[in-house]
Amino acid sequence: MDEGNKCARQKNPRENASILSIITFFYTLPLFKKGCKKKLDDEDVYNTVPKYLSERLGNKLEAYWHLERKTKESPSVIRVLISCYGRKYLIIGLVEFFAKTAFILQPLILERLLRYFRINETEMYKDDAYIYATLFIGVNLLYTIYNHNYQQYVIEYGIEVRTAFAALMYKKILKLHPSTFSSITMGNIVTLITKDVAAFENAIKCLNDLWVGFLQIIIIAYIISTRMGLSVLSAVGFFIVIIPLEGHYLQPEVAYFVQACYTTLIAYITGSIPYGINQTAELFASARRIQNFLNGKELESQPLKHIAHPKVYLRNVAAEVNGVEVLKDVSLFANKGLLIVTGNVGSGKTVLLKTIMKDYTVSRGQILTEGTISYVSQEPWLFPSALKQNILFGQAYNEKRYQQVLDACALTDDLKQFKYGDRTIVGDRGVNLSKGQQSRINLARAVYRDSDIYLLDDCLSALDTHISQHVFDKCIKGFLRNKIVILVTHNINHIKDNGHNVLFVDDGTTLTIEQQKKTLDKRITYYIDDVDLDYLDGQMKKKERIDEIEDEQERVHYIGYDDEPLLKEKHVEESEENLYHEKKKSGKVSLSVYLQYYRFAGGICALLLVIAVSIISQLALLATDKLLNKWYYLPTGRAIKRLESATRSPMIGYLNATLEGLTTVRAYEKQALLVSQFDKHLDLYTSSYYMMQCTLTAFGFLLDIICNIFTAAVVLWFTTFKSVKTLGMLRPFYGRPFKVDSPTFGGQIRDDRFGKQSANTSTSKESQIGREHGCCPCVKVGDAGLAITQAIKLISFLPRTIKQLSELENNMTSVERALEYTDVDTEDKESGDHKENWPSQGKIEYKEVTLSYQTTEEQVLKKISFILEPGKKLESWGELELENLPLFPLYLGTIKSNIDPADRYSDFQIWEAIEKVNLKQVITSLQEGIVDGGSNYSAGQRQLICLARALVSKCRIIVLDEATASMDSEMCDFIQNTKREIFADCTVITIAHRLSTVADSDKMGQVKTKKTRDQERELLHEMAMLSTAGLLSRLFSIPLERDARRSAAVNRTGKRAPPPGPPRFVGVAKHLLSAGESKTEGI
Predict the structure, then answer these.
(1) Within a 10 A sphere around the Cβ of 565, how many other Cβ atoms?
(2) Which tens digit of pLDDT belongs to each residue from 911-945?
């Protein structure tokens, strides 16, 4: 979704390569040269070959899948795989079968060639030997060329299948019904698109070898049986026993023929067939999981259009979530203007908005939505891109509207604080922004889109009160005044300001007008005015004529909480920036990586065992490895492997971002945009993966060619050089009539003068003459066979071993990346060695604590010192904008595992804690499932579950990070009572910026931002000293004065006066005002 400048990528040289270049892999040579000269970077990744573009492949597979669903009652992924790719794959398999069968000629030719070296051979001439030697070399060379091209072809075919299924499944994600996510998690979906589709690719590489291997075993067994009889049924080790019993004399050339056949046979039995069976099982298992996913229930898509008179109408609507009726009898009618929806925690407000968007199934009643919709979720959703792109979200840029939206959403000042303004990159899940900034950017995206209906799900709860009021007045009631706006909120100020356009939801039903009136009056009676502490502090300073610091960007973090910085600005470079950029090293993998890897794998003993087993084969490979591998392939191979890993991360990250913001994406009808962006990420990964496979295959091809040359030299050495030397030595003694039919004295000499053939034995005259004149010693058929067969083994053994060493070096880059996380600074060992009952009292003491998130960054806390005695309560807030990190307090599991992760408490204790936090009616079983992030519970319920976790563990220290932001006033009062009663003996630190949370505190701490003389901001936060209650008294006096002014204004206009202020609030305030100096200690 980032429409910034993209780097121009080169066309893949494979596209314009000639046939000769393709079959010899010469088109990879420029990449090897580039990898040797420089470090390969993201810009060196080629454009994806057109036939592997995910859009094309995904559309093709989608058509086959739709046809399967229409024509078959039970759609099958295996059937689709066969119908879409089976015919072509079968043709490839037939070619492979005939090629493997033809390669059986190699041992047959070897047998004929070795006959030339027999002592009593009379039928083989030197010319015949040359023919068989040439055939032998040619067969090996042709098979090498064919085999590598076949392997490359099936790799490319596997890439095609994997890419097609990944693209199809991403489209399916955008259509999934919300109820599906109760049975499948985000992690499961990521596994499906990564691991399971990779199983298809791996299976395609070896499935043909499975059935071809079985047929080859039959053919080879038959061929051996024609030579050896029943001995074919025996193992190789029993040849010596079986053959004499059958009365056969084992000829050397026959032995080597059978050995070559058995080598091929064993390769199938111990290699191809077991591996193929294993991959087939993986294929069917993955296909079953993908099939269940693709058969999941889809959400009906009904495109909405702009209309002149939009409306939202619900009549007696009931909606189900995972088979449970959440909305029971809801009726509402919304025309242009603002409608506020409020209610208790977990009453069904969010479900109501999603029902309007038709995300949930309506079991009964009538629902009508006319007009386009913009939706703002309760949990802000941002995708990794520039901040501007998060607001535009695929819409055309309009400068005037864009600036108006920024002002209405109170983002103008925030952008001024960022070094790169709206070009600042938003991190994954918005980690470099505060929760309030995320909420306002989320709102700005909705407002910028000119929709008819705006559904705002408690999007103001994370904002400071004065900022919340600004957004409410300028944006919701101002900029959107001519739109339908349905706002979910607990803010009494907003509810009171909106008059009668309020809808109360209680336990899935809407209340009558009379019930709503009673509920509203009750809430106002017990309401403590929700005023921002920072705002009040500013008003107090204004009254005292102290220079007020202009709106300044500020962050507050947990005391002692070590995490990423709240503000981490990044610049959008001219070239495309990898939004999921990882550390990417260059050069060789260091020795320390290997040492740590072997240490994790079992230590020195395991390493020595491996070395002892493989040392003989490794010694023979060192020279070739150094020559070819180290200086040519490895620099390129390492770099491409790193690029493959680096381009894989954005694809997975984008997938996660889509799953998190699925409701928002569908509300904005941006599915096509997201599919297009995902295709780009997938294509980039496919291109780098394709480059890696091409270079690896090309390197293997080169090694095999070198080994073929070596084998050819061995064969020609025996058939040419030896025979020439022998023949030259014999001619002076016997003249031209003699013919030497063997390259050595181990062959036969024919005397054409007498028409007879003399056997070459140790007592023969010819042998004696040859040895007397220095001819070569006898080379037996066994010696020649041994040399040639070992050279053949070298063809398969040496390249495979060197390739494995190369892949080891490449794959060690993954270990290198993983070990980066082990080098991250951890908690000091001393601070982690605590007794089981630690802390025993709960005393907290800070002595000039300075904090920075990273050693290279500025300090965010500077010399903070304070002492908090056991059982005391500390309230901390910021000077202007105190907002917390977006935390995910619940994880995948059950209610019990979330409340009691260590499984240390009984069910009775857990139920007791659940009852104390008023969740007993919501939770029916401790084994009730919680999905990722706890999204099957409301935000308020998630906070209560966390509170139950604190209760059951009987902690001595409790930290509440704005725990009441998403709760109604009654629930906020409940939390305050819990702090006062249940946590009476606990040390409590509350991160707050609202007046309603500080009445019971023993100490108050203010985080302040300093400025340098040149007015440039420094992130240096200090705790201000509040040693008297004078400040606190004046903070409480400001809302009283404001309410008095409001009452006077109402009386002048003659309208109904607002309800009286809450007695408890007035009492506390009057006590503070009359007492003057309080005993409240400060910091």
Answers:
(1) 17
(2) 888 888 777 777 877 777 777 666 667 777 777 88
